[in-house]
Amino acid sequence: MKKLFFALVGVAMVASSAVAQNYEKNLYGVRAGLNVSNASMSGFDFNSRVGFHVAGVYQRLLMETHPLYLETGLQISQKGFKADFWADKETANPLYLEIPIMVNYKFNIKDVVTLYPSIGFYYALGVSGKSKYEYMDTEEFEGESYSEKSDLFGANGVMKRSDFGMRFSATAEWKQFVFSLGYEFGFVNVAKIAAGGNPESNEDALSSWGKLKTGNFFLSVGYNF
Hints:
- The strands form two sheets. This protein has an eight-stranded antiparallel beta barrel with strand order 1-3-4-7-9-12-13-14. Strands 2-5-6-10-11 form a five-stranded antiparallel sheet, with no helix packed on it.
- The protein starts with a helix and ends with a strand.
- The chain has one domain.
- The longest helix is centred in the N-terminal third of the chain and has 19 residues, at about 1-20.
- Residues about 10-20 and about 195-210 have low confidence and may be disordered.
- Helix content is about 10%, strand content about 60%.
- It has helices spanning about 1-20, 200-210, and strands at about 25-40, 45, 50-60, 70-80, 80-85, 90, 95-105, 105-110, 115-130, 130-135, 145-150, 160-175, 175-185, 215-225.
- By secondary structure, it is mainly β.
């Protein structure tokens, strides 16, 4: 019995080692795709805006015996929203430099396709973007519309540069090609002042307009090297 027990343990160890060798320790890839982003604020309805993203991705195997990976990278992502404030309208198109930190677990389906869910967090830094504000000034312009553009993240901008939130996705890998669908939502109030407001009235604007938070659906295609 002892010999049989140790023989089984030896076979299990060899099998475990063989399985471990099937998992790549380091994976590198590129991704690109479509964003459909939006924003939320209590009492206001926002419309979605279409943008894009491009990214470099790195995955690191966390366990030798299981396909559990840490995924990170660097992404350029254009987001934004459209808003109607009574007779006024605003369009924002922020461009972010984004770093996700996620974990995923891979399921191989008959050595043909690999499916895996991913969940984690992201940090985004606003690097550029414009805000276009259109409003009706009945006194000065006699009912005509007027528009002005400003930097979203400038001194008089309406948004903070930093955003932080949660991100999750579902991915399919076929050979070296990758297809992903996911969503991310921010935890941070990114409103610096009310849209179209005066920087000098910052506190009143925030207290009366509420918290502005981001959201983004994304669809990606990519390639692993």
